[in-house]
Amino acid sequence: MNPQDEISHLTQALNEANHRYYVLDDPEMPDFEYDAKLRRLEELEQANPTLALPNSPTKRVGGLALSKFQQVVHEVPLESLQDVFSFEELQDFDARIRASMPDAVYTVEPKVDGLSVALEYIDGVFVRGATRGDGAVGEDVTENLKTIHSIPLQLENAPHRLIVRGEVYMAKTVFAQLNAAREARGEALFANPRNAAAGSLRQLDPKIAAKRRLDVIIFNLQLAHGAAFEAHSQTLDYLQALGFRTIVYQRCTAISDAERRITQINDTREQFAYDIDGAVIKLDSLHGRQALGSTAKFPRWAVAYKYPPEIKPTVVREIIVQVGRTGVLTPKAVVAPVRLAGTTVTGATLHNQDFISEKDIRVGDTVRIRKAGEIIPEILEVVPEKRPEGTHRYFLPDTCPVCGAPVQRDDDGVAIRCTGAECPAQLLRNIAHFASRNAMDIDGLGEAIVQQLIDGKLLQSPADLYYLEFEKVAALDRMGETSTKNLLTAIANSRENDLAKLLNGFGIRQVGEKAGKVLAAYFGDLDALMAADEASLVLVPDIGAITARSICSWFRNPQSQHLVRRLREAGVNFKSLAEKTDARFAGMTFVLTGALTKFTRAEAEESIERYGGKASASVSKKTSYVVAGENAGSKLTKASALGIPVLTEQEFLNLLQ
C-alpha cells in the first residue's frame, strides 16, 4: 500500500475507533492496536507531511502555543437563558407561551455546567471554534477544541456551512484524577469541574488542553445552509446522525410532563458523567421560536430551571486529620450519615484551620451541610442553639499524626505542613522529587518505579535508594535484570552529584534549584551549611529571613538528621564541585526583554548567574540593567521611566567578554 492510501486508511480507521469510544461509548478496537496504528500514522505523516489529512487524529495532541486568542463575532448570537427557580415560575412561562401557541410542545434537557462554544464547519471540515464570550463576541479556541476527541474534525454528508453550539465540560472522574495529580505536585486545586474546563479551554498552549481530557455535548443547531427543519428535536436527531454527541432530550406536550422530567433529571443527576446545575425547557417548534423572538437579554421561548442547593443538618461525630502527599494536614469532619444530592454523605472537608476557626466547628456540633459543585460535601454553618455543653474549640495538632514530626504553617498561606523528611505519607512525592532531573537526576526512577519500590517495602526514605539490593529490585514486576542494572547504576552515579543538586533534592521549603546553587557555592560543603544559624544565612545573597528559618528548622528535625546521616554512610557527596568563578555581577540584577539573536534567553540567564548576578522577570528600582533585544516591549518603557540603564545585546556581550 502506498503512503497516501495507508494514511487515508489509518485516518479513517482511527477516527471510526475514536467515534465509537468517545461518542457512542462502544469501543471495539483494543488499546494496543489503536496505539500501534496511531504510531504508524505519525511516522507516515512525518515522512510525508503534505499527505496528512485535515481530520487526522494526530491533531488531537495539540499544536503550537498561541500568544493570545483572536476575537470572533458570532454570526448567530449565543444567547443566555432566563432562570426560573420554582414550578410556579415555570407555569407562568408556559402560560405566556400558550397564550399564542395553545398546542406548544417542549423539549426538556439536562443543563450541563460547563463552557458554551460554537463550532463551525465548511464542507464538513471543522474550521473554527469559539467561546461564547458575551454572546455576541467570543474567543477563537480552535486549536484547543481540536484536542477534544468527541468533536468530529470532519463530517460526512454535511451542509456547505454548519454552526453548532455545545457545552465543553470536564467529566467528574477526570476532574477527580486531575485534582489528585495537582495535589501530588503541590499545586492549587480546581474548585469544580466547570472551573477546570474553563481554565483548560483557555490555555494558550493546546498541549496543556489536550492533557486535560475535555469533552463536549452539542445542544443546538445554530446554522445549516441548505437544510430545513421544523423542530428543535429534529435538529438534534440530525446532528447525532452527522456524528455529534448530542444532549439527551424528552418531548413534553404538557407542562406537568416537563415538571416530572425536571424532577427525574434531578433525582438521577449523580448518574451523569458531567455536572448539571438545572434543566432547560425549550419550545420545540422553530417557527414558534422565530415568532416569539427574544428580549434584550433572553429568548422568550426557553428558560433554565435551576435546582436549589440541597442543604441538610447533620452532627459532627469526629474530626480526623489526613496528611497529603505534599505534607499538608487536611482536617475532615466525620458526620452522621445524611442523604444529599443522591448519595449518602458521611464526611465533609474542613479545608484548613482558618476555616474551622472562622465557623467555630466543634465535635458534637449540629451543622448544615451541602455538596459544593455537587461533588464535595462541605459544612456551611454551625447551628449554635443545638451545641451540646462541654464542647471545645478545635485546633490542628502540633505534630504530624502520621510520623510525629513538628508541623509548620506556610509563611505565604494557610496550609499547615508536616516537616518530616521521611514521613510515610509524603514518601512517594519526596523520593520522586529527590530523584528528579533538577535534583539528584536519577535516570529511569519515575513515580511508577518509586511506587513499586515502596509497595515492595524496599524504600522508607530517600536514603534507602543507596541501599537497594539487586535481587530484591529485579524480583519486582516489570523489573528484569537489565532494567535493574541500569537503575542501580544511575543511583550509584548520583552519589557524585554536586551539593547543589542534593540540597534541591532535600525538598526544603523555599530552597529550589537556584537557592541550592547559591548555598552550595557560598558554604562549600553540607556540614558548613548545617552549622550556620539564621543570622549567618540571611547574609547569603538571595537568602531571606523566611528561607533562612526554613533551612534551620529542616536541619534541626530528627528525621532530617537521620536522612543526612544515612546519606553520609552511603557515600553521597556533600561538597560543592563548582569551581570558583568570576563574580563580576555579584549583587546585580538583570532583566531581559525582547528577542535575543546571539544566544537563547536561557543561555543569557545562565551567563548572568555564572558571574554571580541574578536574572529577574520584572523591572523594579532594584534592577541594575535591562538588556533589550529586538521588539522590546513594556519592560523597556518601565526601565526608561525608572532611569534604569539599558544595554543592547552587543553591550551585554561586551560585559560578558
How would you portray this structure in words?
The chain has 657 residues and is an alpha+beta fold. It folds into five domains: 3-61, Helix hairpin bin (Helix Hairpins), CATH 1.10.287; 73-306, DNA ligase/mRNA capping enzyme (D-amino Acid Aminotransferase, Chain A, domain 1, 2-Layer Sandwich), CATH 3.30.470; 312-386, Beta Barrel (OB fold (Dihydrolipoamide Acetyltransferase, E2P)); 419-579, 5' to 3' exonuclease, C-terminal subdomain (DNA polymerase, domain 1), CATH 1.10.150; 589-656, Rossmann fold. Helix content is 36%, strand content 20%. It has a five-stranded mixed sheet with strand order 2-11-10-3-9. A five-stranded antiparallel sheet has the order 14-13-12-15-16, with no helix packed on it. The longest helix is centred in the first third of the chain and has 21 residues, at 3-23. It starts with a helix and ends with a helix. The mean pLDDT is 88.
